[in-house]
Amino acid sequence: MAARGHLAPRMGAVLALLTLSCAATLGGGRTVKNDVDNLRLSLDRLRQEQVETRARVDTVYQNRQPGEEDLLTLVQDLRDRLDILDAQIYAMAQRLQDNDDDLAGRIDDFKVRKVHARELSQEELIRKQLDTNFRIMEQIRARVDAIVEDPKTAEALKPYYPYGCKRPTFHDEYLPVFNKPHVTLVDTAPRGVSKINERGVVHEGTEYPLDVLIYATGFQWMATSTFNMIVGRDGVSLTQKWQKEGTKTFLGLHSHGFPNLFIVSGPQGGGGSFNFTNAIDEHGDYVVWMLKTMRDRGAGIVDIRKEPEDEYAAHCRTADINTAPLRDCVSYYNGHGEAEPGSLAYYGGGQWHKYRVQAQKTLEPYLFESAPDKGINT
After folding, report:
1. Which strands sit side by side in the sheet containing 200-203, from one edge to the other?
2. Is the CATH code 3.50.50.60 the one for domain 226-369?
3. Which of 95, 173, 191, 239 would be a feasible disulfide site paired with 228, CB 3.0-4.6 Å?
C-alpha cells in the first residue's frame, strides 16, 4: 500500500497535464477559426506541454519502486494518450500551414465526429472505412480529370484501390507534367513491359528508344534484413525456419529456438501504431524491460515457448485476413499480393499491447536459463 500511495501523486500530476493538453487542443480547434494568431499560440503551448509531459512520464518510469510492476501498463497508457496529442498537434500545424477555409472564416461550422449508438463490429468498422476511402479516392480521381488534358492518360493515372493501400504521395507538379508535349505515359498494365533491348523498351509491338532507363523494381519488405540470416539452436537460419513453418514470432520480437534474439520493427512486430518510429520506441522499452527482468532473475538467456508463439502467429494471421479488404491492391504491404497472411506487418492494432502486458505480468511465455560458463555474460 505504501508503494501504491506514493505512486498516485506522481501519476496524477501527469494525468492532469494530459487532460489540460487535450482540452486546449479541442478548445483551440473550435474557437480560432477567425484568429490564426491564437491558434499559433495554442500550438506553441501544446508543444511545450508535450515536452513537459514526456519528461514527466520518463521520470515516473525511471523512478518506479519495487512492487510497482503494473506501472508499466500505466506508463503505456500515458504514452498512448501522448500519441493522440501528437496527432492533434500535427493536425493543428497542418491547418496553419494550409490556411484552411475554416481558419480563414469562410466556413461557419466544423465537422462533428459521429458517435454511434452502439459499438460497431470489426466488419462494420472496415465497411465504414472502405466507404470513406471510396469518397477520398473519388476526389483524387476527380483531381486527375481536372488537371490531365488527355482522357486516356488521365484514366491510366487514376488509382482504384482503398486509400493507403499504397503509400500516398502528392506533388503539385506531378500531374501537370503529363500535359507537356515531350512527356508520354505508356500504360503497361496488366502484363508489364514486353521486352527491353539494346535500344529501349518494347511494349505490345512498339519500341520506345531511350537514352536512359531508370529501374524502380522495389524490394522485398521484411525479407532483406540481416536478422533473417541468424542461425538458431537447431542449426537453421530464421529464414529457413519461416520458410518451413511460416512466419512465427512472439510479439514480433522473439522467435522460438533463437534465444536472446530481439527483432526490432520486424514481421508481426506491433506497438499499436503504423508509425514505425513509435513502434521502435515501444520495442526498445520492451527490450529494456526484458534485460532488467533477466538481470533480476539471474538469467543470461531467454527464449520463447512454442505454444505462445503459435498462438500469437495465428492471431497475426487472423488479424491480417480480417483487415485484408483495406489492402486490396498490389503493394509491398502485402508482398505484391503473394505474402502469406500474418507474415509481414501487424494488423491487430492495440491487441499487441494486450499480449505484451499479459506476458510481462505472468512471464509464462518465456524460458529463462542461466548463462553457460563460456559465452554470454550476465
Report:
1. 195-196, 200-203, 206-209
2. yes
3. 239
* Phi/psi of residue 219, nearest 5 degrees: -160, 170
The per-residue pLDDT for 256 is 97
The domains of the chain are located at 2-98, 122-185, 188-214, 226-369
Q: What is the mean pLDDT of the chain?
A: 79
As beta bridge partners, residue 207 has: 202
Residue 148's φ and ψ, nearest 5 degrees, are: -80, 125
Instruction: Provide φ and ψ at 162, rounded to 5°.
Output: -60, 145
Query: Which amino acid belongs to residue 154?
Result: A
d(CA 316, CA 268) in angstroms, rounded, equals: 7
* 42 has a pLDDT exceeding 80: no
> Taking the CA of residue 251 as centre, how many other CA atoms within 13 Å lie in the half-sphere pointing to its CB?
29
Contact predicate 243/204, CB 8 Å: no
Cα(202)–Cα(208) distance, integer angstroms: 6
